[in-house]
Amino acid sequence: MENSHKVRLSDIADRLNVSTVTVSKAMADKEGVSDELREKIKRTAREMGYRQKNLKQQSFRQENSTGNIGIVIPSRFFERTSSFYWNMYNALARELQNNGYYAILEQLDAQSEFDLTIPGVIRDSKVDGVIVMGQVSIDYAHYFTRNYPNFFFLDFYINDENTDSVTTDNFYSEYMMTEYLISQGHKDIRYVGNFKSTSSITDRYMGFLKAMLENGLKTELTDIIDDRDKDGIACPIILPEKMPTAFVCNCDQTAIKLIELLNGKGYRVPEDISVVGFDNYVAEGSTVPALTTVGVDQVATARTVVDLLLKKVNGQPYTKGHTVIGGKLIIRNSVQKIQQITVQ
Description:
Blueprint: H1 9-16, H2 20-27, H3 35-48, H4 55-59, E1 68-74, H5 84-98, E2 102-108, H6 110-114, H7 120-123, E3 129-133, H8 138-147, E4 151-154, E5 165-168, H9 170-183, E6 189-192, H10 199-214, E7 246-249, H11 252-264, E8 274-276, E9 293-296, H12 298-313, E10 322-325, E11 327-330
Parallel strand pairs: 1-2, 1-3, 3-4, 4-5, 5-10, 6-7, 7-8
Antiparallel strand pairs: 9-11
Helix pairs in contact: 1-2, 1-3, 2-3, 5-12, 9-10
């Protein structure tokens, strides 16, 4: 690795054959640089050993600052080496480093959550603040809120106007996804996911329900197909006796499991049945067919929650309450358009 004190923006520009102005804009997350080029510039800067310091944030640090932010996640969401939350953690760690902080990861096991135990990074005064990523129990969330002020919940929220959180716009994104399926001729659509499990799945189901009701399409609570129990523990997906033309899955992981199950039963996706997911954490080309889903902007999400939390812990004005980041429909090949038959 090159000496960080000698690596300049112009060195990075020369390496990539771009202008120093372009590198400066990319490193400062300013407009005028594509997301792909921005990520390439930042990756090259890291590889060359360039250390970007956020002087604005550092100037607001308290004298006793640790320079660390804790990222706490329930173990049940972090059991896989590749997952939505693993990708989200990496985005958070990069954004914190861009702001002169380091991320300390701590997994919250089921017993500690049940016993209402505050994370060790807080007890040991290792961090200035904490991002709690992934739904914890309501009891734990309220207990945590009462006993520690410098935090943001990420990807879930609770019924407390004084609690700070950042989520994707789950409701509207799933509403638009369901509207897309309906526009492709689908009327018999089933939802896959336990809406009692997390606030995100609840909001996604409500978006699905709104689209169905607005289009006069029948759906009942008993039509929901569970992929997990109320505590978020995965359970087998049981296919209905009467198959729909499309399934709306609460996440990509569930969509992949469902496609594998359908293939095993002799159904073709999308020729026989269409399937859509949510999160876009599965790399394009890794599933057959390529999955239609909702893209969650993890970079924008990480940037938002880090900016808000650092302002909070450093005593600066910040947007309190629940902050929502928009999602984006990503149309691929897992949806088949149904040709309407006209009776003459």
